[in-house]
Amino acid sequence: MTSGDDITIRRATPADLEDLVVLTGEYCLADGHPVDPDLARRGFAPLLDDDSRGTVFIAHDTTTTLGYAVVCWSWSIEIGGFEVVLDEIYTRPKGTGLGSHLIAALEDDCRTRGVLRIFLETERPNHRARELYARHGYTEDDSIWMSKTL
Fold first, then answer.
1. Looking at residue 2, what is its pLDDT?
2. pLDDT per residue over 35-72, tens digit each?
3. Which of 8, 44, 90, 144 sits at a 20 to 30 Å CA gap from 61?
4. Would the CA dihedral through 121, 138, 50, 3 be positive or negative?
C-alpha cells in the first residue's frame, strides 16, 4: 500500500518491532504515559506474528519509520458483529497528512475484513487528535469508557 510522496504504508512485520518500540515511546511521552519498552515489545509482538488479534500498519519513507496505527479485533452484540478498536496511532512529524493516510489504510483493511464499527479513545486534552478523527467521519459517543487492570 503506498500513500504517495515516497511514503509507504504496509502491514508491519516482526522485523519492524524495534522501530515500533521507539515510536511508541515517543507516543507515550507525547500523551504523558510512562515509557516501558518491554511492555511495548510484549504488546506489539503477537500483532506482528499474525493477524489473529489485530494488525499494525506502519508508514515509512525510503530510510525512516514515520508512524504506525494499531487496530485490535472485538465483537459486538449491539451492532451484530465484528468491530475493532483503533488502539494507537502516532506519526512524526505532525501536520503532514500521514495520520490521514494511516486512517485510510486501516479503514480499507477493515472494510475488506467485514468490520462494522471502529472504536477509539483519546485523552481528554487531545483536541488535535479528535479534530483529525472528526475530519474522517468519527463522532463522539455518549459512552464513558471504564477500565480495570488485572
1. 44
2. 899 999 999 999 999 999 999 999 999 889 999 999 99
3. 44
4. negative
What strand order describes the sheet that includes 7-11?
2-4, 7-11, 54-60, 65-76, 81-91, 117-120
* Interatomic CA distance for residues 23 and 40, integer angstroms: 10
pLDDT of residue 5: 64
User: Three-state DSSP class for 117?
Assistant: strand
CA–CA separation, 14 vs 28, rounded Å?
Answer: 21
Q: Which residue has the cell 486512517?
A: 103
Helix (H, G, I), strand (E, B) or coil at 146: coil
Does a cis peptide bond (omega within 30 degrees of 0) precede residue 37?
A: no
Find all residues with CB under 8 Å of 109, minimum gap 6, and list them: 55, 57, 71
Cell, residue 135: 475530519
Residues 6+ apart with CB under 8 A from 136: 100, 103, 104, 107
